[in-house]
Structures are given as structure tokens and as C-alpha cells.
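Record type: ASSEMBLY
Status: queued
Input:
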Amino acid sequence: MTAAGRSGAGSRRATLLVLPAVVPVVVVVGAALTSAVLLSLGLTPLVGRPELSLDAWRATELGTSIRLSLAIAAGATAVATVVGLCLALAVTAGARRSRLLATLSSLTIPVPHLVGAAAMGLLLADAGFLPRLLGIAPADWPALVGGRWWIAVGAEYAWKESAFIALVVAGALSSRVASYTETAALLGAGRWARFRHVTLPLAAPALAASAAVSFVYTLGSYEVAALLGRPAPEPLPVLAVRLFTSIDLAARPQAAAVAVTTSALGLVAVLVALRSLRRLAAEQ
Amino acid sequence: MLVSRLGSRLGRGALAVWLVLPLVPLLLWAAADRWSAPALLPQAWGTTGLAEARAAGAGPAAVRSAVLGTAVALLATPLGALAGRALTSGALRAPGLVFGVLLSPLVLPPFAVALGLDVLLLRLRVPAEVGLVLLLTVAAIPYTTVVMRAAYAAHDRHHDEEARLLGASAWRVVRSVQLPLLAPAIAGAAFLAFLVGWSDYVVTLLVGGGRLVTLPLLVGAAASATGNDAQVAVLALSAVLPPVALLVVIGSIGRRARR
Amino acid sequence: MSGSLQLTGLTRVHTAGAAPALDDLTLAVPAGSCVAVLGPSGSGKSTVLRLTAGLDTPTRGSVHLDGRDLAGVVPERRGMAMVFQRPLLFPHLSVRDNVGFADRVRGLPRRQVRESAERYLELVQLGGFGHRPARALSGGQAQRVALARALAAEPRVLLLDEPFSALDTGLRQEMHELLADLRLRLAPTVLLVTHDPAEADALADTVAVLDAGRLQQLGPMRELYTRPRSLAVSRLLGGRTEVPGTVAGGRHRSALGDLELPAPAAEGRGVLVVRPEAVTLVAAADADARGTVVQVRRRGLRSLVTVEVAGAEPAAVDAELPPGQEAVVGAEVGLRIPLGARCVVPLADPREVASAHDGQR
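Status: finished
Output:
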């Protein structure tokens, strides 16, 4: 058998192996996006005649929702990134207590966001556990749940995603960071210099990638904002689900427009993250 | 030195509080019959929450969630494993593109996919349960693929070659060498896929149309009503404890495999 | 810049109750000298470096640099640099930034850091490699950069932890020459850890043999080769001939006969050890002992023969023949063991003797 023939067979075999996963993904993602775009353009109404129209894109308060969703995702991701990095550093520091912290952090991973939202409600509401702990009367407690600043929503995402970011970053650091920081210490680098010149650059790719995943997840996640947010204005997912499940069938194209918008924002965020990751990789 | 050690101890304490604090009221409420503000601890302990949760149908809902999670894990894990193997074989054309396609469900919000596909599934008369499993499997494939790709990349092919030279057939190598060595990764991938099915809320809500009641749907319904905090806490805890128990089991599999 | 290092009674017990990884090591490294710690894996030799560098804390004992006790001093303030077996170049930095790392964290201006880095790169014969990413180097180049990075920190003591073990033979020779050259130019104080007697011989002025956490013998390599103090040291240095016998009146009596000793030895049972290079095959008339060749192995142009000598306690003697001389299995040969090459070591494991001694106290 010639080398070319063999590599052809290998490539065919690899393609066959990957197809069972690729086909459903392409079918579901492709069909969902196509269907949503067509619906938002009025081409596949449940009742009535198909007619190309941009009405669905004009009707909704898209601008406000986009700004709100981006703000929540950015704020929560920023907090999650800082806390997640601290967690990862504490977990990989090798002290005896770090094992407890690692266990606590990994036990947070399987908690569903919905449960996290319920927990944050019980913690941060005006009769919640935190005001009781701090001895503050319900009347004096700021409206963290359903309030103007979406604090409880942001806190839930930051809490869950910090554990996720810590897991990814600790995984990237654990195997190699100890020997590199020892080397740096012997070359005269103090605590801060080791962090600044060795640990942070080594963690940066994992940190950026996991932060991007968190951001996109937060942007498109429904249940936390639905449960802990205020009725108006609505973040994109809440807006879309309300429109989609409303009795008014005419609202469905609008829901589809919101869904397409959210998907596009997520895609842009990922592309930006990929570019900065590539730059990070080029620097390394 | 003392200051920095004290600082690191304080920092560790703060991080531990950050991780644990949100779960504390959940645990307390689950066992509280009466706990009115501003008391720091419940005034009366009891099982009212549990009884209410059972009355709301927590049992059957948990079974439905477990079936959903298991179905997603059974489908997404082998698909991810095959894809991970193909991606690390070096024989695949455009592996970067294929990997990107397999990760694309991570980028798309689940509600958007469910919303777009719902109409189509209705038109094609696909049963809601089948559609739901299909959608959640696609949502889980990125996780299983990432885990299995990393595992295959770390897997030393020399083990396989050695086994072949010792007389094992290709299939035998998969069974006797690869599967045992990859067992921790497979368990991890299956766990993540199970979580996708077990904890999904919005896809079940949209595709199931409210008729398919899983545990997260009960939690959501209870939490958006007011005044039944004990029931919310019990439902929420029952949505957390099975995966945590699974995580502990899988952790012990991983430890045994490393030995 | 070179400092003098003094290790005193250095002991490290990892788990209470277990045997110490390092037991009561006292060792001086004078300024500008190179001392090698030689030992098999698990002998505690890497522990010596970690304790010296401050990466680990001794259970007992102290590390003094230029007379100053380093207890409680963090690694980055000890003025030491270490090269490990793996180069551990920072993967996110270029070659130049790796070499300039120490200056950079000291806060020197960039220009100065860069110039100094180039100078040290030239010193390890890698001038012009500065812009390359650290990942784009071969194993030998990476290890040279690691050496340049350590030297650029201008340490008062340079610690080398099996730095050339992962390199193949040719590269290792090159690195040995490079280090010898660097010692001539910069005269750094070097504490080297290795399992390879040839490496210790090539690089060090003084060698400390470590086994099971204890210092076995300290001295120049020549002396360790010709006058090992124990079977362990002899074996570690590649000694093969061990002839049990009895010492009486300055003579060793065994299957080899009654051999005069060059130096006084303890009376009673004792093992005669001889380097194979010292033994020659001669005509029966000039021989110290006679025997039969039982094995011949090739060592390049030379051959290593094992000669069995019959007796109440039969003995096997290894001899390395000069190029050109050959021997065949089964031949009867005479053995000549020069007076200066004869050395008698105690029969028992010295550790057992020591612990029995401890027990008496």
C-alpha cells in the first residue's frame, strides 16, 4: 500500500469517527439558526402568509436589552475572573488548607445555576440570611434582589463562574507553576515579581479562555435573570422567552430576532476572545 | 513574613466564605419549619419543606431529570470520545475547523437554539422528549469532546503499540488498554453530560412546553412564588445532592485509576 | 561576587519516624571552588540543594553564606541561582528575557538588562539567539540558556542539580567544557549534584559522596578512586574487584595471597578493593597472583577481563587491558596489582557499624 493510500484510509477513518458528533451538531445548530432567522424575517409564520418584513427587528426594545445584557455579563465575568484567579492561586499554592479550598470549589461546579439563583435569593433578599447575619433590618437593606443594579443576578453568575474559572486556571497551572516559580525565586524574584512575571503570564491563556466562555454563557443564560432580576428592563434571554411564550403569536418573530441578536453577540465575543488568545499565544 | 502569612490565611478564609456562604441559607431553610426575620437561626426545625416538596411532585420530577441526564450522558459521551480520538489522530482534515464546529453549541445560547428549533420540531411532529434529548445532547457534545480530546492527547500511544506487539488485536487494545487508561476522563465527560441534562431549565421549558416537569422546573416554579422558602430549599438541595454524590464517586474512580 | 558556603549538620526528616532524607551533612564550599555531591538516586543529594537554596527548610543544621546564617531567609534573597535537570525556561518569554529575568525583577533599566543578557548569551556561545522564543530551542541550547540565566543573576553561589543528565553524551562533554571555561572566566562558587562519577571528576575540585542521606567520604576525585573508605563508595565509583580477606601486620591475606598494603589498615577482616585500570596481566613469574580468565568484555579498544583466582575463598579480579593486549576465556594468567592501588575497606556496612556505635552511647 502506498503512503498516500494509507493516509487516505486514515483520514477516511478519522472522518467516520468524527461524523456521529458533527452531524447532530451541524443539523441542530444550523436548523435552529436558519429557522430563527427565517422566523424573525416573517418568512415562516405559524399562521398567515410568509412575507419578508423587518417589523420584528424594529418592534422590540432591542437596544436597551443589549446594553443591559452586556453590562451584566461584563460585570459578573470581571468579578468571576478576579475571584477565580485568586482561587486558582490559593488552590495551587500547595499549602495544607488548599485541599479544602479545592474541594469546596469543585463542589460548586455541579450546582445548577437555577439552584444558585434560589440560594442567592435566600441569601440576599431583604429578609435573607445576609441581612440577618449583619443585623440589618429588612427595611434598611438595599434591594439586591430585583433591584436597580442587578446585584443578586451578577453575584450568582460571579459565584458559579468563579469556581469554573478557578478549575480551568488551576488545571493549567498545577502541573508546571511550582517549578517555574521556584526558578524565579532563585533568580531573585520576590512574591509580587513572581506573580507579575511568571504566574500571571502562565495563567493568562487559560484565564482569558475561561473568562470568554463565562461571558458568553452569562450573556445567553435565562433562569438567573428571570428569577432574581426586575420586571423591566429585561435582559435579552428574558425578553426572548417572554415574547416566545406569550399568547400573541405575532410576538414570535420578535422573539426570534432577539435570539438571533444574542447568538450574534456571543459569536462576536468569542471571535474577539480568539483574537486576543492568538495574540497571547504569539507573545509566548 | 508573619504579615504575609496572616494575609494569605485571611485570603483563604474569605475565599472559603465566598464559596460556601450562598449554600448556608439553603441548608438551614431546608430543615426549618419557621424562620422569620430577623432571627439568625430558624425558630422551629422540621420537615415541612420536605413534605411540601414531595407534595409538589419532587419524586417523579427527580426521576425524569435523572432519566434525561442519563440519556444525554449515554449519547454525548461516546460521540465525544470518538470525536476526541479523531481530533488527536492527526489524520483528520482541517481538525481546527471540526473542533470549532463541535464547540459551536457553547457559543449559542441554549434558549436561542431551543426557540429556533421548537417551531421546526412541531412541524416535523417530533415528540418533545426526543427533541429535548437531541438538543441537550448537542449542548453536551462540546464538553465531552473537550475532555476526551485532552485525554486522548495525553494518552501515550506507545502503550497501544506495545500491546499490539504483545499480540493484542486492535479492538482488544481499545478494551484492555485504552478504556482502562481513559476511564477517569470518560467518567468526567459522562458526568458533565449528565449535568447538562440534569440541570437544564430553559430548553425543557421551551421544548417541553411546560408539560414535561423536571426537577429544575419545580425549583423554578417554587422559587418564583413567595413565602415557601423551605420548599424551595428542599427542592434546590435535591437538585444539588445527586450530582455532588456522583462527583465524589467519580473522584474516587479517578484516584483509583491514578494509583 | 563569589561567596563561600558552609553547610553544618544539615538534616532533613520528611516524615517523622522515617529515616532522614539527609542526615547531619557538614560541607564547606570555598569561594570560587566547585564541590560535587555524588550519589545514587534517592541518596538525598537533591535535598542538599533544596535546603541550601531555601526551597525546603532543614529539620536541623544551618546554611551559612560568607559567615551569615541563612535561616529564615527566603530563596529570592539568598543570592543563589539554580540550574535544574530540565531547563525550565519561562515559556512566555524570549531567550533574551529569560536571561535578563533576574535583572528585570531587580528593576534595572530595560536597555541595561538587554545588553547584559546578550553578554551572557555570548558567554554560553549563543550570541544572536536572544530574539528567539524559549520554546524554539533544542535541549542542549535550552540548557545553555538556563545556565546563562543563572549566571546573569550574578549569584554568590551557583547550584547545579544534575544539569546535564538529560543531554546525550556528546552534548554533555560540550557542556562540561563550557562550564570549565566559565569557571576560569567568572570563578563562581559552584555546588553541583550528580550521579555520574565522570561528571564529578570533570567539573569538581572536591567531591562529597552521599549514600542513604549520609556523607560517606569527602575529598578530591583521585583520592576517592584510589582510597575509597567503604564498599559503597568503591561501588559507586565503578569499583568491581572486592576480595574478602584478613589484615594483619600491614598485609592483606586472601585467595590472592599475602599482599603488602601501602597504608596502615585496621586489623581483622577487610575487603581489598582495586580499580580495574590498575591491574595488569603479566607472565606468571612476575605475578602477585595467578588465575583463569572467565569473562572478556569489550570497552572500545580496550577489553575488560575477569580473572578468577582459586582458593578457600575464591576471588574475582577485574582488569582493564591496554589497547592491543588481548586475553581469551580459559587462559591461565598472572595478575599484577601495584602497591599503590591496593586499598582495604571494612567488610560490614559502615552504617551498621555507626548505628551500633550510637547504640552504645
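Annotation: The first helix of chain B runs from residue 2 to 20.
Annotation: Chain B has twelve helices and two strands.
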